[in-house]
Write a structure and sequence with these properties.
The chain has 358 residues and is of the alpha/beta class. It is built from 13 helices and 11 strands. Helix 4 runs parallel beside helix 7, helix 5 packs antiparallel against helix 6 and helix 8 packs across helix 12. GO terms for molecular function: lyase activity.
């Protein structure tokens, strides 16, 4: 298949290309470009002298690691006219976005996402999120690539957990877009073991849904904030587990916690049909991951809550999360920092950790 479309941005418009076999073309780089890639893909660019390979993890996606990468870019004699090609998943994308945006006050770059999570979600939007100390995604900026090249064949390189992580993010986006988009997603019956063509359809649907959010609210001021569904609790689970729970899986669990909070706080007396379908679908995906229940049951609720309250999206007087209302639509909740609400939040977290997210 070959599909392409543009993302409108006030910074600079950029193009998304979804094409089977596109990665082979990307491997041929010219002399005025460099590759920043996940270590896993270093050998794919062995014929290119200008390659920076890094571990794609939360430690590399930190402010302390950025100077070393910047120095390597300078050692490769990259000029302001050079282009950086980033190859990897979401963490690598964050690193590349940030480094390309600040190197010599900004150079052009392309991005080839290699994880399903990157393909269905993070590859568009143009923003970086970098960890500082123990705080996840504390700093960042907006610097979109010129072109995003997606090769669905790369899904074959992923393990089952990586595929499920991407599906958790894809269903979140489609649910956030509304009932029609969510229904279209569910009609595709996305499962971990589907073929490349099935994944290509999911990628296209998810990105076109996210495109709407990006173009109507590029800088996260209104509608795009709904895409934080599952993320505030998810980031807390990541931190509390010392990142033993990966991002996409944590978002899946975070959506379940957010729905549970709506129930225990009295905001959701009866679960709407779409919300119940979402919950059942996510639980079904997570049940496919060996050892996940054991991992999350080892996580301390108090540590999760400690990570939750340090999230940058909260205000001084309110916890701010995305949850569901009585009709099943997403809404932004401003939760007073009262003892009763804290009890409800901990209860929602506990219901997922201690009851195996049922």
């Amino acid at each position: 298949m070959s599909v392409s479309f543009d993302i409108q941005s006030s910074i600079a418009n950029y193009r998304v290309v979804i094409e089977n076999g596109a990665f082979a073309e990307v491997q041929r780089q010219d002399e005025n470009s460099a590759v920043l890639c996940d270590n896993f893909f270093e050998t794919a660019f062995s014929g290119n002298a200008k390659v920076i390979a890094v571990p794609a993890n939360e430690e590399t996606k930190s402010l302390t690691s950025v100077p070393e990468i910047i120095v390597k870019m300078r050692d490769l004699a990259l000029t302001r006219q050079a282009k950086l090609t980033a190859v990897g998943g979401g963490s690598l994308q964050d690193i590349a976005t940030f480094c390309a945006s600040i190197y010599m006050r900004g150079i052009k770059w392309d991005y080839i996402p290699t994880t399903l999570l990157g393909m269905v979600d993070s590859c568009i939007g143009g923003k970086s999120s970098i960890n500082v100390g123990r705080y996840k995604n504390l700093v960042g900026n907006f610097h979109p690539p010129e072109t995003i090249i997606i090769d669905p064949n790369l899904v074959k390189t992923l393990n089952s957990e990586q595929k499920i992580a991407g599906l958790c993010e894809a269903v979140k986006i489609c649910y956030a877009k509304g009932s029609s988009c969510f229904s279209e997603y569910m009609r595709l019956n996305p499962q971990m073991d589907m073929n490349v063509e099935g994944y290509a359809d999911v990628i296209e649907l998810s990105l076109k849904a996210k495109k709407w959010f990006i173009e109507i609210d590029e800088f996260d001021k209104a509608e795009r904030l709904l895409l934080n569904f599952g993320h505030t609790f998810g980031h807390a689970l990541e931190g509390a587990s010392n990142f033993e729970v990966s991002h996409g899986i944590a978002v899946g669990l975070g959506m379940l916690i957010a729905i549970n909070y709506a129930q225990v706080s009295g905001g959701l007396e009866h679960i709407p049909a779409d919300t119940q379908q979402l919950k059942d679908y996510v639980i079904g995906l997570l049940d496919e991951i060996p050892m996940l229940k054991e991992i999350i049951q080892r996580i301390d609720v108090e540590k999760v809550f400690e990570c939750f309250i340090s999230d940058k999206k909260h205000s001084t007087s309110h916890f701010i999360i995305i949850s569901v209302n009585g009709s099943g639509a997403l809404e932004r909740l401003f939760i007073d920092k009262t003892e009763a609400n804290i009890i409800n939040l901990k209860s929602a977290i506990s219901s997922v950790i201690n009851q195996s997210y049922k």
